[in-house]
Design a protein that fits this description.
Rossmann fold, 4-stranded antiparallel beta sheet, 10 strands, about 25% helix, about 25% strand, methyltransferase, transferase, Methyltransferase domain-containing protein, methyltransferase activity, SAM-dependent_MTases_sf
């Protein structure tokens, strides 16, 4: 049985793997691996699972983790820049780190901070750390973020990448029931081509997509 890809909308994604909880399909066009919609958690179940996380603004381990995105991102930004932390969660530590470096950062999270006004402004950069693997409609959400970037703006994504079917079968990342969209290097190459973006792999799990054009002050 084939499935439609939620990223590129190709109609014939094929079975990739199945565990005892759910099946996974892979798109032959953009290589996204995804969970079919009928296996997604309800919004209430998803929120309850997120509430189990214990990240805090004082967590040094969490800060080291986010530094893998913050450090290369700060090297790319002119100060001061205006940004958005999309999917910031209840403890927006990355936004705090970027603000301390001299940037203005708005916050948005569909569960913890549904600040609709923040999604109507334009930004020099947008960060989405450990977010896109949760998206049921990555095509719509990524397009929405891309539209909010100014010319020359940077979308910084942090997510773990699919390597191979063998690695996937034993991958801790798929044990999280809120993880439903799994990207890989070929997926990001497809996305960069689709968005006409400059692609940079800043770290093993950190990907930058830069919008064409030059932002004028």
């Amino acid at each position: 049985m084939s499935r439609q890809c939620p990223l590129c909308r190709h109609p014939a994604a094929q079975p990739y793997y199945r565990d005892k909880f759910r099946p996974y399909y892979q798109c032959g066009n953009c290589a996204l691996v995804f969970v079919p919609p009928e296996y997604h958690l309800s919004p209430e179940e998803e929120r309850a699972y997120y509430d189990l996380h214990e990240n805090s603004l004082q967590d040094e381990g969490y800060q080291r983790f986010l530094n893998r995105c913050a450090t290369p991102l700060l090297n790319e930004l002119q100060r001061p820049s205006e940004g958005l932390d999309f999917g910031c969660g209840p403890a927006p530590l990355l936004a705090q780190m970027l603000a301390q470096a001299g940037h203005r950062v708005e916050l948005y999270d569909s569960y913890y901070l549904p600040n609709t006004g923040a999604m109507k402004r334009d930004y020099d950069f947008i960060v989405a750390t450990e977010v896109i693997e949760h998206l049921s409609a990555p095509d719509k959400e990524l397009q929405r973020l891309w539209q909010r970037l100014r010319p020359g703006g940077l979308l910084a994504v942090m997510t773990k990448l699919v390597i191979s079917p063998e690695r996937f079968a034993n991958w801790h990342y798929i044990r999280d029931p809120t993880h439903i969209s799994f990207f890989s290097v070929p997926t990001f190459r497809w996305l960069a081509d689709y968005l006409q973006a400059e692609l940079q792999f800043a770290d093993s799990d950190v990907i930058f997509l830069r919008k064409s054009g030059v932002h004028s002050e």
